[in-house]
Each structure stands twice: as C-alpha cells, then as structure tokens.
Specification:
Length: about 550
C-alpha cells in the first residue's frame, strides 16, 4: 500500500504541466430505438450510432467538444445532459430540457458545443422524460495533459439498472391513479451488460439458478477485465442508475479512492465502496493476489431492500482463461440499511489540499429545501418545499434572458419550510401544488443550500438546526461534488458561489423522483450569457419571438 501512496507525490508536481495545444473533437451521433438484449431478455434500448451504452468520449483538458446530435426517435423529443461539465460560457449546451434548451424534435439535428475545462470521470445521459431509464447514456472521460499519478492501465466501468418494463410503461404507471411504483430493477448492468436468467456464480448460490453458459459474444455477456500480475490499474466508475444505490467491490483487492466527481481527493483505502446515482470515482488497485486465480468484481444494491441480484464480472489474471470461475463466492455487500457504514465512507472524502480553493467562510443567502412525497388531486407527486416542479413550454434560459415575464410563475419560491414540520412523521396535510418558479441568485454571491430529508434521503442526523449545525460545517477541506447524498431523516449542507451565468436544474437524480417533481431551478447572471443559438430556443414563446424577428 505504501507504494501506492507514493504515487501521490506526483500530485503536487502536476500543476506544472507540459503544454499541449487544445483541439476540437467532433462527433456525429444518431439516436434511435433498437432491439437489444442487455441481460439475456430481449428488449428495446435507446442507442447512439447503434451502440448501447453510447460511445465513450475521451478528451484532454481544454478541448472543445462538438456533438451533432440527430434525433431519430419517431415520436418524442430528445436532449443529452453532460453530467459534471461546468458549461462555463455555454449554459445552453447543458442539455436540460426546457431549462437550458428546447427538446430536439424528431428528425432534427442539434449541435452541442462546449469546452471541457477540468480533468475527471464524467458521463452523459438523456434528460427528457425517462430516457435515461431506456438506456440513453455513456461515458465522458477528460484526461489531464499529464496525469497526476502513475498507473499501468485504466478501465472504465459505467453502472446502471435495468427493467423489463419499458420506460414508457413506467411513466404511465407513475402518472396513474392509483399510483403504480416502478418496482425494483430486474438486473444491474456493468457497461450495459448483466445476466437475468442465469448467474456467473451459480455454484455458490443458495437458491436454484442456472450457471451462465456463454460464448462471449452475446450482448449480455460480461465484459471481462484482463490484468497482468503486479501492476497498478485505475478503474474509472460512474453510476447512471435510475433508482439503485450500489456498492462496488473487487474480491481480495484493496481499492484506493483518488477522485470523486472530477476532483482529486485525499486518497484512502476501502474494501468496498458505495456509489449513488450521479456520482463518479476513480480508484487505484494493485494486482497483488494469487496470479493463478481470477477474482470477482461485484455490484450490490444499497439503501433499498435488495430484490435485484448482484451484478458480476471477472477480474481475469492473464494468462488464466477468462472463463475460469473464481474459487470463492462473490463479495458480500454491507447490509442494505447499514447507513452508518455509508456515512463512514462519505465522511472519508476530503478535497486534496492545495488543488482547490477553500470555501467562503460566510454565506450571503441560505435556502432550506425539504423533499417530501405528496398528493395533488389524488395523484402521487414528489415536492420540494411543498411545490412539485413542472416545466414551462419555454426554456427558462430564453425567457429570463429575453425578459418574457409570462413564460413561468415569477413569484419567488419559498426559502424554507415550516419550523413546525416534524420530519419523523407523515405530514397532517399531504397535499402539494404544482409550480415552476425560479430561485433567482444574485451573481457572485455565496449560497448555502440545506437539503432536508423527511423520509428516505446528509451528513447530519435529524432536523437541521441553523444555530448549532452551522458550527459543524467543514470549511477547511470539504469535497467538491456534482452529486450529494442525503441519508434517511437527515440533512446535507452545500455551499457554492453563484458565478456561472445560466439557468441550472437542481434535482434528485433518482429518475422517477425527478419525473414526478422533485427539483428546483436556479438562475444566476443570465444577463451575462452570450451567443445562445436560436436553435436551442426554438419552442414556446421564444420561438414566436424569433419568427417575428425574421419578418
């Protein structure tokens, strides 16, 4: 382990990087439905250029990405969100439907153009309806001009969950009265591959299940990770799950966590690690086990009672046959409801000192957001501060920039929730209301967001107390994150400077929760946004404005 730790001596040198000129990276993608077999059961996925998951984008810091995206879906709109990319200067390319852009209509092509300004492990996914659940996702890797640490080779692992019921049917279920929950996923996928009717580890199972007999060329055959003994490998892992929180383990191998959401962190070792939807990590591991064996790589459900089998693949020590089954059962995950275990992992993540500025010591505005499950006219919805988000027909970016006041409700949304709200009990009045208001943030001010979970979602227990809990804030080395977890009946505090002009979605990354309203919208410095392409605002009231201008 000490040799691995020595790798990080490079971290304090990599700021002095050799200069490599930035380049343009151009892609032409066609998005369409295709028959596919992700887990051994025939289904339909949203594919890009005939691939599921979609193509991996690899770039170097400073590069500009051009994606010409053609919507070949026959009857629905389309957008792609580039998860974790800051979109400085290009908020219209963020890919959030009816927030930053209009959905791309069937048959149309839209150009996404943005700069990748920070190295890290990222991914992209659909952000319209429930298209992420249908398989619209892929990896986006941004490398440093000179990597911060040494390793011999790297792998990429994109995690997702899969249902045999289509995303369209799931949407109908969620919007029905009575409410029909989507249920647990049938399969966990690793790079788009899983096994439903058989198991790679059937010989170790307590339940009757067939051993997978695979040729290796099936769409659902596991991707085998081939390694040489006594080498150091980097595993980039991201979770684009629609529902499941996961736990990742590599049998017999310690994992050093070195990156979280595109930020280098103080390295620490784990035997397994939790990863929530929207998160990404890099880990380093050494192939220092018995080279005559192969080993399991496993993912297991966390935070929900697991009714979905483990996702499995094999770490194949060369020259062993890839088909050689490991000698031991797959790793056992922590108990699904052991939240103390999960908190212990989250509390180990700190930014690497010297690579990121310390957070401001004081805030200019504090917003408390309470998430709840509610009802509106008998329909089940999710709400934040008792408002269930519905999107207007005109993208916020266009209506705010061009001063179209009747495009959405311009009243200020609530900055907090009732002090008398008991987070440990169901509310006496479960009713909520629809809304599409916007939190207007003063540009360059410091904002605190306190996320309070009343039932299922944190770094604090119980109800947030601004007099006592503010003193617990870590202002020395808090992690920079794209996604944060909120544990059951707890709260999480985040602090950021509103210095990125645009309109931004802030929402739960569990697909059905967002679909049913668990989100809010932030706007900051919109007057500073320039060069918004007309194509991104070609709907709603902004479409009428552009048509009028042409005449």
């Amino acid at each position: 382990m000490s040799s691995l730790l020595g790798i990080f001596l490079f971290l304090y040198l990599f700021l002095l990087l050799s200069s490599i000129s930035a380049r343009n990276r151009e892609y032409k993608w066609k998005v369409e439905y295709m028959h596919w077999c992700p887990d051994g059961v025939d289904g339909v996925v949203i594919a890009i250029n005939g691939q599921f998951p979609g193509p991996t984008i690899r770039a170097i810091v400073g590069d500009t990405i051009f994606v010409h995206l053609t919507n070949n879906l026959p009857t629905e709109g389309l957008v792609i969100h580039w998860h974790g990319i800051s979109q400085i200067g290009t908020p219209w390319a963020d890919g959030a439907a009816l927030i930053s852009q209009c959905p791309i209509n069937p048959g149309e092509t839209f150009l996404y153009k943005f700069k990748v300004d920070k190295a890290g492990t990222y991914f992209y996914h659909g952000h319209y309806g429930m298209q992420r659940s249908a398989g619209l996702y892929g990896s986006l890797i941004v490398e440093d001009e000179k990597e911060a640490f040494h390793y011999d080779e790297e792998f990429n692992l994109l995690l997702s969950d899969w249902w045999h019921k289509s995303s369209h049917d799931q949407q109908i279920d969620l919007s029905s009265k009575p409410f029909r929950w989507i249920g647990e996923p049938q399969t966990l996928l690793m790079n788009g591959r899983g096994q439903f009717n058989c198991s790679l580890a059937a010989q170790f199972s307590k339940f009757p299940i067939h051993q997978c007999k695979l040729r290796g060329d099936e769409q659902y055959a596991p991707q085998i990770f081939k390694v040489h003994p006594n080498k150091t490998y980097r595993l980039r892992v991201a979770s684009t799950t629609a529902l499941a929180s996961l736990n990742l383990a590599i049998e017999g191998h310690k994992m050093m966590v070195v990156e979280a959401d595109g930020n280098y962190i103080q390295p620490f070792f784990v035997e397994n690690m939790d990863i929530y939807s929207g998160e990404s990590y890099s880990i380093l591991f050494k192939t220092d086990q018995d080279p005559s064996n192969n080993y399991w790589i496993s993912i297991s459900v966390r935070g929900r009672e697991p009714k979905t089998p483990q996702g499995l693949t094999i770490l194949n020590y060369i020259p062993n046959f890839a088909s050689k089954i490991p000698n031991s059962p797959p790793p056992l995950a922590p108990l699904w409801n052991d939240y103390n275990y999960s908190k212990a992992f989250s509390n180990k993540i700190f930014v690497l000192m010297g690579l990121s500025p310390k957070p401001p010591t004081r805030q200019n505005r504090r917003i408390l957001l309470l998430n709840t499950q509610n009802r509106i006219e008998g329909y089940t919805r999710w709400s934040i501060n008792n408002i269930s988000l519905v999107f207007p027909t005109t993208p916020y970016l266009g209506s705010i920039k061009h001063g179209i006041n009747n495009a959405f409700d311009t009243k200020s949304p609530p900055n907090t929730f009732s002090k008398n709200y008991n987070i440990m009990k169901p509310p006496p009045n479960p009713n909520s209301t629809f809304g599409n208001r916007v939190y207007m943030l003063k540009f360059n001010t410091t904002i605190d967001i306190i996320l309070q979970n009343a039932n299922a979602l944190g770094y604090g227990d119980g109800k947030f107390d601004h007099k006592k809990d503010v003193e617990k804030f870590n202002l020395k080395n808090p992690p920079l994150r794209n996604t944060v977890v909120i544990f059951p009946y707890g709260w999480t505090a985040i602090r950021f400077v509103a210095n990125n002009p645009g309109v931004w979605a802030f929402h739960c990354h569990i697909e059905p929760h967002l679909h049913l309203g668990m989100g809010v919208v932030f706007a900051e410095g919109v007057h500073l946004v320039k060069n918004v392409p007309n194509e991104s605002l070609n709907c709603g009231l902004t479409r009428k404005m552009f048509v009028k201008d042409k005449h």
